[in-house]
Design brief:
This protein has 88 residues and is mostly helical. The protein has a domain of 39 residues. It has three helices and no strands. The termini are far apart.
């Protein structure tokens, strides 16, 4: 007994179409990212914070800027090295 598979039409095509619909990603169903931690910092009411606390906050933010810039430089160096490797 031989098995006939008809790829152009029939049950397999129907199954493939059905399967694609089930596995397709619907971006409307993804959760919406409302606020990032940075957005929360930007929205914070600073009027209730003392001058000493604000000074400490500025110093910590400056340290975070340095840390972020260091990471940017590392990523740029990595990309440059990868670009040079793949151009050769």
């Amino acid at each position: 007994m031989k098995c006939k598979l008809e790829f152009r039409s029939g049950p397999i095509k129907f199954w493939l179409q059905l399967h694609r619909k089930e596995t397709a990603m619907d971006f409307d169903d993804l959760p919406v990212k409302k606020d990032t931690p940075l957005t929360a910092v930007e929205k914070e009411d600073l009027s209730t914070i003392s001058a000493d606390e604000l000074t400490e906050r500025v110093e910590r933010l400056k340290a975070e800027i340095v840390r972020t810039e260091t990471e940017i430089q590392a990523k740029q160096a990595s990309k440059t090295a990868a670009d040079a490797f793949f151009k050769s």
